[in-house]
Amino acid sequence: MSTFLDVLGEDDQRELRRRAVVRRFARGSAIAHANQLGDRVLVLLDGHVKLTRVTPEGRDVLLAVRGPGDLVGEQSAIDGAVRSASIVALDAVEALAIAPDDFLSYVTTVPDAALYVMRNLNERLRDADRKRVEHAAHDVVGRLSARIIELCERFGVEDDDGGLRIDLPLTQEDLAGWVGASREATSRALQQMRELGWVTTARRSVVCHDVAAVRRRAEG
């Protein structure tokens, strides 16, 4: 999957950097909060962030994970509305920060950037539809399998035994919110997947040993 930076040529990347400032955030930093006016668009250079929203009951729900090359916060720049999610650094993050007006000016003069933004917003709408169907049609193991496949495709690195390692400090609470289940149900689903030999888990990583089996369960 191509990122925003992937689609930009060298000249376009130089122009983007000219308009932006480099910002760094420590692991765990709250970079922005939901319902704030968007004062900057971020282009991630290094590190990962999670996008979260709090339910009326006070529960944190993980919406997405973004990594190097990705855009964060462009939707608020485009529609002028407040941020729909909070942004938290999962690890040390370095990013280009660009003011909304500068971002819009840049996108309107760089066709590759404009096309990426349109396609990316469209894909996020499709992804939201897929997740609604998953929630209605699949059990917790199926939904968790789908999220692990998503992480493998975006951030997986081949492990020594041929599996894919995901080195992201996501907690069981994060995963539970992402799949729309309780922490206890998510813990049981992970245990079942471990017993089947599909995954192993550590404090800040997951290794998917049988991607094909997990994918079949996700498509279930």
UniProtKB/TrEMBL annotation:
A Pfam entry, by short name: HTH_Crp_2
Gene3D superfamilies (UniProt xref): Jelly Rolls, Winged helix-like DNA-binding domain superfamily/Winged helix DNA-binding domain
Keyword presence, Transcription: yes
Domain Cyclic nucleotide-binding, chain residue ranges per copy: 4-124
Keyword terms, alphabetized: DNA-binding, Transcription, Transcription regulation
InterPro entries, alphabetized: cNMP-bd_dom, cNMP-bd_dom_sf, Env_Response_Regulators, HTH_CRP, RmlC-like_jellyroll, WH-like_DNA-bd_sf, WH_DNA-bd_sf
Keyword Oxidoreductase: no
SMART domains reported for this sequence: cNMP, HTH_CRP
Domain HTH crp-type residues, every copy: 138-212
Annotated signal sequence range: none
Name of the protein in question: Crp/Fnr family transcriptional regulator
Organism: Patulibacter brassicae
Upper taxonomic lineage: Bacteria, Bacillati, Actinomycetota, Thermoleophilia, Solirubrobacterales
